[in-house]
Amino acid sequence: MPQTIHILPELLANKIAAGEVVQRPASVVKELIENAVDAGATIHTIVTKNGGKSFVQVIDNGCGMSEQDAAVAFERHATSKISAYEDLENIRTLGFRGEALASIAAVAQVELRTRQKADEVATVIRIEGGEVKEKSKDAADYGTSVGVRNLFYNTPGRRNFLKANNTEFKHVFDVVQRLAIAHPEFRISFMSDDDSVLDLHPASLDERIKDLFGERLFESLVPFHDSNEAIEIRGYVSKPDFSRKTRVEQYLFLNGRYIINRSVNHAVFQSYEHLLEKGSFPFFILFLTIDPHRVDVNVHPSKMEVKFEDDRSIYRMVLNGVRKALMAHDLAPSLGKSGYQDSGSGPRAAYGGPIPVHSWQDLLGPKTSEMVDRQTGEILPGTELPDSPFPTPHSALPIPESPFPIRHFPVWQLHNKYIISPTREGLMVVDQHVAHERVLYERTVEHFSGQTQSSQQLLFPQTIDFVPGDAALVQQLMPHLEGMGFVLKSFGKSTVVVEAVPPDVRPNKESTILQDILDLYKENEHDVKLEPRENLAKSYSCKAAIKAGDPLNEQEMGSLLDQLFATKNPFVCPHGRPIMVKVTLTELDKRFGRPV
Ligand code: ADP
Ligand code: MG
Description:
Layout: H1 10-21, H2 25-38, E1 43-49, E2 55-60, H3 67-72, H4 100-106, E3 109-115, E4 122-128, E5 131-138, E6 143-149, H5 156-159, H6 165-182, E7 187-192, E8 195-200, H7 205-213, H8 215-219, E9 221-227, E10 231-238, E11 250-254, E12 257-258, H9 262-271, E13 284-290, E14 295-296, E15 307-308, H10 311-331, H11 360-364, E16 412-414, E17 418-422, E18 426-431, H12 432-448, E19 456-465, H13 468-484, E20 487-491, E21 495-501, H14 513-527, H15 532-544, H16 554-565, E22 580-584, H17 585-591
Parallel strand pairs: 1-7, 11-13
Antiparallel strand pairs: 1-2, 2-6, 3-4, 3-6, 4-5, 7-8, 9-10, 10-13, 11-12, 14-15, 16-17, 17-18, 18-22, 19-21, 20-21
This protein binds adenosine-5'-diphosphate and magnesium ion.
Magnesium ion (MG) binds at residues 31, 34-35, 95, 100.
């Protein structure tokens, strides 16, 4: 078949190219903000409607454009930032590819208003689907405003890929938040659907971090700073016990540009060595300053990936810099060792190492069988209690309400992590955390379906101030949270008073459980496409469940096993991990060389 090759019309080419630069409202906001920063603006106003799907506007007080420049700004490859190949190797601006405005205008309805300080009137250009519809003059403040309506109005296929308003809002929020971290000296206002989401005044970095993430998180941060002739690193990392269950809160900036770089993230993570619990990630803000000649930021149109000339020395510098800072903060004794060492005596002393066996009692673990009267569940006098995280009379599990009888066969706890119990065919080893997770998960699903309904009323309601992004998420999830047993009252935009929590929340956790759930919820949102209630049930059960490391007494273990076996699936946790491992007598017999 004869083929004819032809050059695509410019409008179509722009529409195709737009796909690389503009994926969603947040990418529009990112590009417009970058232009404002490059224009030297110090005041940035961001306005969105419907998560940015129907409207995005960025207003700045930067240098503005002349009438002439405004007319060409929407052309493809139109840029004032570089002019020769050599410039590409020395990029000091956020933009340089000259394709953002052309790409945005190809897939939306755009209005540009721009005025340089010296000019009397502003130039106004209206452009739709890449076609200029109107050029005029108007009175306006100096600086630039770009309004973008109905993103992807002419590319329905792409429009259909956009997510719910609040998801798109969250992405926009992340972009604005990154600007706010990179430039605490900027005045930034962010309005969404006529609500003020952020209203930040110029501040120091410390103050800005407090404004965005709250005092509590700030207190948990350790500053670091290091430099040599080629590289400077500075920023904050969280102390290990304030680490997050999500990778999302890792902010890395290279010469003022937010970037994603696995190697640097890994270096930060590594500097904690064994200080982090498995599955935890440090919160960090890291500013890298490197001579632009030594990095290539022109790897992808979104400009978030970069190539370093010398990956390894950056890795080493971050690793050492962060490690030094952590060590200076009294965390040194644990660093460099292969785990925590406990100096106490008894089985706990060997935690993390092989158990020295002196007697059968050592093999069986703590003398749990002597501590609790099996009939009454009472603690026998003269028994030394392990330091339980559950102050009496509360208990890890709501034992008094348990409809199940207390077991009459023995249970042991292994390394405060696994429960061992004989079975008819041999023995089972149960992971206490995932077992409890399964129990709570099913209970939460029951709550949602309205089969049961209960709450723990708090004697002292807890007031929680959320950062704006989380406040929006709480509002969005409010009906579901109430379905779980939370009783929440909103005060203003970001303050929530917790009056009651679900029945299984442990004492001392009332004030943190909601934030914990939100953190995990956000992480799950990134990983998998989960229905909100399913995500909440998973996040809640993981966060409210007893943890590895929590000592349990015999009664608590017995009750947990009873409740586990009353669930629909006692063998697999909601995330698909096994809950128990069984070892049969036949297997043991084989291993001991007994004739089977
Ligand atoms: P790039 O930023 O890569 O140069 P853009 O398409 O984003 O490409 O912008 C094209 C040009 O329009 C910029 O180089 C700049 O000269 C001008 N421009 C865009 N936005 C602004 C703004 N907010 N203030 C001043 N000039 C701007
Ligand atoms: Mg740009």
